[in-house]
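Run log, item B.
One chain of 168 residues. Sequence copied directly from the ordering sheet:
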Amino acid sequence: MSTFNQSKAEVVRKYDAFAQKFNEIYLAGTTRGRVAMSTALDQASEQLTAAGEFTTAQGDELKHFLSRDLDQTVADMRHMSEEAKIKLNPSRLAAGALSSITRVLEASSEALSKLSEKSREQLTYSTGEMTSSGTLTCSACEQTLYLKTTGHVPPCPKCASTAFTKSY
């Protein structure tokens, strides 16, 4: 993180604390969706900044990184929803059950698709940025990196590129 003059382990601890606080606030809310997520991100940043966990600038940077990770998760869920539609075998399901599942999947897919479209540009991960565990793919050479824990994005070991996409 550019604004952190601390060890990587300390930055990872702060990211994880921020993610946990976001989760507590989001789950305590009564609404779901992008607006509720944005509100929970703001509140988590404000609360942890007020508690002295990090500066306002660090909170803004953590908020950006967690927001990007959440957007990637939404995109991955949308993809899984599309795969589920394809893989469900209609001949095995009763017509009523199939109809209900289809409506739920279509509604979920539409909502997730809208969120995905809004966040697609923000899903580029750059060397030095903080991210949660997952698979990073180099945008230049398609080399795959596997992050087992929260950490900083390294340069590509194959071509030294600094831009990646992510999946889980």
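Observations after the first pass:
- The longest strand covers residues 134-138.
- The chain has two domains: 8-120, 130-167.
Flagged for discussion on Thursday.
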